Structure formats: C-alpha cells, structure tokens
Amino acid sequence: MCGIVGYIGKREAAPLLLNGLRRLEYRGYDSAGIAVLNGALSVVKQKGSVGDLENALQESGERLSGATIGIAHTRWATHGDPSDRNAHPHLNNAGDIALIHNGIIENHAALRLELSSHGYTFNSATDTEVLVHLIDRMWKDEPSLNLEGAVRRALRHVEGAYGLCVISSREPGTLVVARKGSPLVLGLGDGEYFVASDAAPIVEHTRKVVYLGDGEMAVVTAEGYTVKTVENIETEKLITELDFELGEIEKGGFEHFMLKEIFEQPDVMHDVMRGRVRLEEGRVRLGGIEDYLDRLKQARRIVICACGTSWHAGLIGEYLIEEFARIPVEVDYASEFRYRNPIVGTDDVVIVISQSGETADTLAALRAAKEKGALVMGICNVVGSTIARETLCGMYTHAGPEVGVASTKAFTAQVIVLYMLALALSKGRTISHDEIALNLRELTRVPEKAARILELDSQIKSIAEIFKDAKNFLYLGRGYNFPVALEGALKLKEISYIHAEGYPAAEMKHGPIALIDEDMPVIFIATRDSTYTKILSNIEEVRSRKGRVIAIANDGDQEISSLAEHVIYIPQATGPIMPLLTVIPLQLLAYHIATFRGCNVDRPRNLAKSVTVE
Ligand code: AGP
User: Fold this and answer.
1) Which atom of ligand 1 is nearest to the CA of 491?
2) Which residues are registered as beta bridge partners of 74?
3) Degrees (nearest 5) of the Cα angle 389, 376, 324?
4) pLDDT in tens, 420-479
5) Which of 200, 431, 485, 568 registers the highest number of CB atoms within 10 A of its CB?
C-alpha cells in the first residue's frame, strides 16, 4: 500500500512525479504529496487524491519548477488519519530532509519518545515521521556522514517494514532509497533514474529496471547508482527488461479499469494458456515448474496459502487438484498460516498465490513454509515481484497489469493456472491421456464462452439497476461454484459497500436462511452439474420465504426460469470449467451496482491494490 515515486535526472521533476503518482494511485489514495529540491526543499502535500494535489500545485507551481530531483507519495493510511499533516513527504525539524515511506515502523512509539527527549517535535501522527527525525539525529551525531550513511545508520534502529526514498538539501544531487518488506523498483533511463513502488510509473520512460531486494539500499545520482545491503555490503543486481506496454496500464476507452479488465478476460485466458496447453500432444507444458514436477507429484500434501480473491482461486485449486491429481490439498489464509505454527514438512508442497506478488501475509507464509523445509511454489501475476523471486519454482498468470483494486482478470488467470497444474500433476498417475486431452479441449473453449458472457453486459446492467439499493446480498453455490459465490460476494462488498455473504448453498439452512425475506436478493449459481437438483431445492427454500432469486444458469435451462425472478444464461461447460464462466456475470453485476451507487469502483474506500502491511 502507498505509492512511492522518485526522480533524479535532467528533466523537470514535478510533472514526472505527478504522472508517476497517477499510475500508482491504486496503491493508496487518501492523501498525496510531493517534494522537490531546487536549492531548498519545496513540499506540497494534502488530503485527497492526486488530482486534488495537482490543483493545489497549480497555485504553487512556480515553487516546484526547475527542480530535477524529487520524491512523491500517495498514501493509504495506517498510523494517523488521512489529513494534510499526515500526508507524505515528511520533513525533519530543520526542513532540509524529506522522506516518503511505505510500510509500518513497528517501534515508532519508542523512537518517538526518544527523539522527543532530544528536542525533536512532531508534526504528524504517522509512524513515518520518526524516520526522518532519526536520520537527522544520526547525521547530527556524526556530521562526517553523508545522506546514505545517515539513512543507513538510522535504519539500524528501525523495526518493521519500509520502502523509503529520501532527499536532502544538504546533499542535493542524491536520492537514497531502502527496502525491507515493501517493494521498490529502480528504473534506469538515459542520464536519469526513477524509483517507484512498482514498474507502472517507470515503463513509459524506460524498460530497464532493477528490483531492490529486502534489506537493500540504493544511492542514486544523475550519473549512476549503487546498490548495497543496509549493512553496507555490495550486491550484484540484475537488470531486468519490463515485459508490458504502457497501453496495458491505461483505460483504453473504458470508463473504469475494472470494466476494462473484466472485458480483457477472453484475451487473458488465451495468454495464460499460450505455449502451455499443447492440444495436439494432449498435455500441458509448464516451464516454470518442469524441473520440480516429480517432486510436486510426490507431495504428501499441498497447502495453498493466499489472501482475498487469490484465496478464492486457491479453493478452486483444491477442488481441481484433488479431483484430478488425487493429492490432498488444504487451503489456508496466509495470515492464519503464518501465525499458527502449522504442521508442514519437507514432503509438503506449499503453493502461494498472489496477483501482486507483494502481499505481506502471503510473503510471510511463503517464508514460514520455506523455513519448515516445504517446497514452495508461487502463482503470481506481477513479474519480478518479491513472491515470484522468493519461491523455488512457479508460474506467472500473464494477465497483464491489473489496476482496478477489485481483482477480476487475475482471478480467472489464477484458476486457469491451477487447472493446468492439476492436469500436469495428474499426468501418468491418476487420469488417462484422453481425459487430460478432453480437459484441455474444454479449457481452450473457455475464452470464446467468456466472450459470449460479456455480451450479456446490458442485461446484467439492468438487473443491477433493479437491485442497486439492496442492503444485503446472499450468494450461494455448490461444488466448484461455492468459491465463486464467495468471490461474487467479495466483489460486491468491496466496490459497492453493500453487505454480502457467500455460502455453500446447502449451508443456507444452517443459519443464513434466517436472513431471508422479501428484501434479500439471493444469487444462485445454478449451473447444470451433479448438484443441480439440490440447488433447485435450495432455490425453492428461498422462494418460499419470499427471497428474490437471481440465477446464473446454463443456456437452455427452462426449468429455472419459472423459479427465479431473473436468470442470466451462460454457455454450458463441465463442472471444473464452470468457475471461469460463472464468475464473470458476478463481476459485471458488482461493477454495475457500484457505478449506479456512484462508488469509485477502481479505488474503493479503505482499500488498496497491494496490501504490503499486515
Ligand atoms: C480482490 O478484489 C481484493 N482487492 C483483495 O482481496 C486481493 O485479492 C488480496 O488482497 C490479495 O492480493 P494479492 O493477490 O495481490 O496477493
């Protein structure tokens, strides 16, 4: 959470920084600020969006012009409310050091006390501000230090997570960055350098990047950069080429990123399978795990760890792997796994799933699993992300950058990856070559079926209009569609702020049925699979309590039209394929309900795209 961007070079820093902030705004958007160095430090920061900051800058633009070094930040509040004074950058009391930070300084209270006793005064309620005073203090204690040395020394006293970027008028041509827990990327231009929380603000300037590792610091000038550990040990860094285009992080004519990303799904589905699904050979080829496939097949048990939408994909993965590969699977919330001393050993495989590849809990689960000796595999979307780098083997989802805070295309891509994995794990063991080939054929038909579902957008929009004022929603599904019910409910609550619950349909009578009355819309995912007749009975139970039924059903299902108030018909497919299709109408429904309610779907309140704090 929080977006960091820094620039040093020959060009005017302020417009570049602002543009960078716009690209990072999905990471946090309750306040924003910028500091540039032009002799002295100039800072403009305030509560609100990057757009609000731009307006403020129009008044103070003169002060910022001419500077070729600066830092900027868009905030997702952890300590201290969203306000002007808590916005970053933060300054030391002399006003000659400016700092932006993403993460949490866990020992901030103790540091604050100590710094106060040395006469430092605090202007914000943030944990971050202690850092800038601490750097100042280190520098004062040892004036022979440079900015790098002062930051390095300060970080020795810090517990917690940080991605930070510091400039100072005492050393005007230097930008110092450091990372522990929170991601940072260095963009290498021609006589200019960029620093950012992710590659989105960098790609329009340069494709060459260096990902900072945990515990590393970079010192950047207009002439070059060095990377060392916080303990001052030189490290060799690989230069990586970015693999996405600027157009992929723009809206491309859609009103919102979320809608664009929902509509991208048929293409994304092709991309995930490209080169991996070998229809002619009736097999999948998964380059990223090939060398470990035998060990994966021999796993005593697979544990999937993830958060949010990725956790829902993990649940579908459990069904797929157990059905096809017959390996026992457990799915755990990463945040629970990391703290509950799980029983995991060397014959277990832990799969971590993360769109961003930076989620703090998932990363901690990964590290805990590694420590216990498990083989750790990753499924990530963001190439070069921390989780992707720290796992032994893994697969990218190739969904392209996902900017909307509500995850959509990343989810379907994760499910396809898990599907391919399940088939790869089955090969030569549990299901025949023909069955694998049959499943692969079904998979390759999904993009076209998904495209047909997207044509239902206007029907789904009119259903959304009818239910936009509902206070609660219930989502019910069985088997493969149960995780989809959870995901549908999550999508609705996160972007429309309507309370929604997902349940296995059969569980309804064990409690949630008490909620049903004429004001309760109930979404049934009622596709024709082995549990179809059971779900019809569940629909009857809701109807007889006057609940309002919206059903997702398969084309040609006449029976359901007499039971449901609204039916969204989707193409027929096998049970395991179904989540890839049934989720799409639910994404669209959530999207339209949220827009009818005037919500900011791409940047829902209190949320951020990348959850890099616990
Ligand atoms: C999805 O819509 C959510 N915004 C959220 O639950 C997300 O899936 C979760 O934070 C995990 O993120 P990750 O996949 O990047 O690890």
Assistant:
1) 2
2) 3, 32
3) 125
4) 999 999 999 999 999 999 999 999 999 999 999 999 999 999 999 999 999 999 999 999
5) 485
- Rounded Cα gap, residues 383 and 398, in angstroms: 8
pLDDT of 104 above 90: no
Interhelix angle 433-454/578-596, rounded to 10 degrees, is 20
Whole-angstrom distance, CA of residue 351 vs CA of residue 341: 17
Indicate the residue type of 16: L
For ligand 1, the distance from its centroid to the CA atom of residue 113, given in whole angstroms, is 36
* 271-298 pLDDT per residue, tens: 999 999 999 899 999 999 999 999 999 9
pLDDT tens digit sequence for 62-101: 578 899 999 999 998 888 888 999 999 999 999 999 999 9
Q: Going by CA atoms, what residue is nearest to atom 7 of ligand 1?
A: 308
Q: Which is nearest to 19 in space by CA: 219, 187, 211?
A: 187
What distance in Å separates the CA atoms of residue 33 and residue 409, rounded to the nearest whole number?
Answer: 31
Q: How far apart are CA 434 and CA 440, in angstroms?
A: 10
pTM here?
A: 0.84
Atom of ligand 1 nearest to the CA of 387: 16
Q: Find the 390 Cα to ligand 1 centroid distance in Å.
A: 19
pLDDT of residue 60: 67
> What's the distance, Cα to Cα, between the start and end of the chain in Å?
11
- Expressed in angstroms and rounded, the spacing between residue 594 Cα and the centre of ligand 1 is 18
Helix and strand totals (H; E) in the chain: 19, 26
pLDDT grade for 61, boundaries at 50, 70 and 90: low
Atom of ligand 1 nearest to the CA of 362: 16
By most ligand atoms within 8 Å of CB, the mutation choice from 198, 262, 309, 332 for ligand 1 is 309
Give dist(CA 543, CA 252) in Å, integer. Answer: 42
Distance of CA 102 from the midpoint of ligand 1 (Å)? 18
Q: For 395-418, give the secondary structure using H, E and C.
A: EECCCCCCCCCCCCHHHHHHHHHH
